[in-house]
Specification:
The protein has 692 residues and is α/β, with parallel strands linked by helices. The chain is built from 17 helices and 19 strands. The longest helix has 73 residues.
């Protein structure tokens, strides 16, 4: 626990430090002096389906439908997704594209809700004692409430409530640092609702069972520290006061300070047994579990010289920013620009009617004197200040050259994706180079290139599958044509042999026989000829058994098997380096496994067919079936079982976001193993019955 000596806050825990960092003007007194106020209900709510990392929510309402406050409007689509709820009661006016909170000012699909002014709640699932709930139930309540991270990029919170499969959670950290200048939303939340924050952390600890629970907070928030200390009495939560330095609130930087552990490049905190959550998220978890309330509002800082009534406001999600600012004395003539977020990591809003979303922690309206536009960028002088300030120990100067030259593969090789876009490098750059903007652009291009490559791979897979199907069909046609030609040749030879034998019978007639044809004999001859033609036709049908080209079918099988092995390697590599590709690669592997099975079955069927034709007598397929291949069935069963074991191991070691997809894959493979085992048992029983 922390202690106080002569008014100075200290800790008994030994703290570490991270590389770099800066000390910009805090500017927090503009908004942290007054209590949180509650914004009114706007005349229109704009609710984007994408307010989080992962897949956008799926709409489950219709235009014209009346909804109640807290009613679900869109459901989570997959593991990495969250639900969306109505912030108040009203009517769904439209579902259309609208400008959203994004640096590019792009549009996205949004639900337009017109409030009815009644603010009527739907029925909620409250629970007074979370200890009476199972961990699964708590996870479900958080997922159904649509809670996403409220201090960063909006990662689905329910996913973080699943302990990592490879190990237990050693440390649960609540991020109360709020190091970004101007922003005070978390500060006021902790001052006024510290008990909700702490109880939310206790719920998380109940689900994760960590070894220790820490709250990291900067020493520039004495009132919040006092409130938290009072709230954590009689708990095992430890308050850790850290020195003020930007960006101490970065997830990896805070972990380094509190635990002296470093998150490896390309990994997440869960990989080293650490879970981090924001204080706003903790309060939302408490409201979701205790009262059954979904995430429909948040505390947002309104600050800057362009706003007369600066402070923190609890605002409904979907509230248009221009309408919200108009309620708090916004002066456009004094404002240089509108920024969502802080001056370091925020971005300029291209449209003032952009809605408030789950990750909106601040709306900044600075004047030209308060936060002037940066001067034009000049040439890099290679001073190295950016590298000294970088908290992620990257090489910003080198990443700048790679990004500017569009050498994205080299930038990625130099760990560009580890950049947290804190802006420290741009802040200290004497040439005023907008380094973060270059990095953001490069990251977007890398992401787009990967998506294009993925689409290209899918197109190639479809093309190769089509080519394989066409080759297989052509091989089957050639085999049928060859079989028909051989059957016709045999029938023609039989016919010629029959015609050659008929004149000999005629020459054997005696001269005493009457040259006048007997009508009875003519009728018998006609019947005999008809019988011979019928018999010849049956012979041709028996002979016309497909004789496919075994070499072509075997080659097709080998190609598909080789491709499947490569895709398995790609999937294994993705599990280690590119988790976001695991789901799609898993589906591709399953599809190619089906193609391999089809190619193998075609080859085995053709082999059995030719073995049957090699017998001395010709027997139609309908009358005699080839004996089952016990070895082949056994091999299939053993391969299926081995694959199932590998997939089960992968599931046991999977990241939380991969669990759902891998579980479905394991279930499918269990069905395949059961089918293969049953086929082997049936074949053995069939052979035993034949011997008896």
């Amino acid at each position: 626990m922390s202690a106080s000596i002569k008014g100075k806050l200290i800790n008994t825990r030994t703290l570490s430090d991270f590389h770099g960092g800066i000390h910009p003007n805090e500017m927090k007194s503009l908004s942290n002096l007054t209590p949180i106020t509650k914004a009114a209900i706007p005349p229109k709510l704009i609710l984007p389906l994408q307010q989080h990392i992962g897949k956008a929510s799926q709409v489950i309402v219709e235009v014209g439908q009346h909804v109640l406050k807290g009613e679900k409007l869109a459901d989570a689509d997959g593991m990495i997704s969250v639900a969306l709820h109505a912030p108040t009661s009203g009517v769904i006016d439209n579902i259309l594209d609208h400008p959203i909170a994004h640096p590019s000012g792009q549009t996205d699909l949004c639900i337009i809700l017109t409030p009815d002014g009644k603010d009527e709640w739907c029925e909620l699932d409250a629970c007074e004692h979370y200890e009476h709930l199972s961990v699964i139930k708590i996870q479900s309540k958080v997922r159904e409430a649509g809670v996403a991270g409220m201090g960063g990029a909006g990662f689905p919170t329910e996913v973080k409530l699943h302990p990592p499969h490879h190990d237990k959670v050693a440390t649960l950290i609540l991020n109360a640092v709020e190091c970004e200048p101007y922003i005070t939303a978390d500060d006021r939340l902790m001052r006024e609702r510290a008990s909700e924050v702490v109880q939310g952390m206790e719920i998380m600890a109940y689900a994760l069972q960590p070894g220790e629970c820490l709250i990291g907070i900067e020493d520039n928030k004495p009132e919040a520290i006092t409130a938290l200390r009072e709230a954590v009495k009689d708990t095992r939560i430890e308050i850790c006061v850290i020195p003020t330095k930007y960006p101490s609130g970065g997830e990896k930087q805070l972990i380094k300070i509190l635990t002296d552990k470093e998150v490896p490049s390309g990994k997440i905190p869960a990989d080293i047994g650490v879970m981090c959550q924001n204080v706003g998220t903790a309060a939302a978890i408490y409201r979701a579990v205790r009262f059954g309330e979904p995430l429909i509002s948040r505390v947002t800082t309104l600050t800057g010289e362009g706003i007369q009534q600066r402070g923190n406001v609890e605002v409904l999600l979907g509230t248009p920013i221009d309408w919200l600012l108009s309620q708090y004395g916004y002066q456009a003539e004094k404002t240089e620009r509108l920024i969502m977020g802080g001056p370091m990591m925020g971005f300029t809003l291209n449209h003032a009617n952009t809605p408030i979303v789950k990750t909106t922690n601040c709306i900044l309206a600075p004047s030209a004197n308060d936060l002037p536009l940066p001067p034009p960028a000049q040439a890099c002088i290679r001073c190295g200040l950016c590298a000294e300030a970088c908290p992620a120990t990257l090489l910003p100067q080198q990443l700048y050259w790679f990004s500017r030259a569009q050498e994205y593969d080299k930038a990625e090789h130099h760990n560009l994706l580890d950049c947290i876009e804190c802006g420290a490098c741009s802040y200290v750059c004497p040439s005023s180079i907008p380094l973060v903007q270059y990095y953001r652009h490069a990251k977007g291009e890398i992401k787009q290139l990967k998506q294009d490559q993925q689409k290209s791979d899918q197109a190639r897979e479809r093309f190769e599958a089509r080519q394989f199907r066409l080759e297989r069909e052509q091989a089957e046609k050639d085999a049928k044509r060859k079989a028909r030609a051989e059957a016709a040749a045999k029938a023609q030879a039989a016919k010629k042999a029959a015609e050659a034998a008929q004149p000999a019978d005629v020459n054997q007639k005696t001269d005493s026989e009457s040259p006048i044809t007997d009508p009875v004999d003519t009728k018998k001859a006609s019947i005999q000829a008809a019988l011979e033609r019928s018999q010849a036709k049956k012979s041709v049908q028996a002979i016309e058994i497909e004789v496919p080209d075994l070499d072509a079918l075997k080659t097709a099988w080998d190609k598909t098997q080789s491709k499947l092995e490569k895709m398995h390697d790609a999937l294994d590599n993705a599990k280690e380096n590119n988790p976001e590709q695991v789901e799609k690669l898993t589906r591709a592997v399953e599809k190619n496994q089906m193609r391999v099975n089809q190619a193998k079955q075609a080859w085995e069927k053709a082999s059995a067919s030719q073995s049957l034709e090699a017998q001395p007598s010709i027997v139609p397929e309908a009358e005699k079936a080839p004996a089952p291949d016990i070895d082949a069935l056994k091999t299939t069963f053993e391969k299926s079982l081995a694959k199932l074991e590998k997939m089960q191991d992968a599931l046991n070691n999977a990241q939380p976001e991969q669990v759902e997809k891998l579980t479905r894959a394991v279930d499918k493979n269990k069905v395949r193993v059961q089918s293969a085992e049953q086929a082997l048992k049936d074949a053995k029983q069939s052979i035993q019955d034949g011997e008896l």
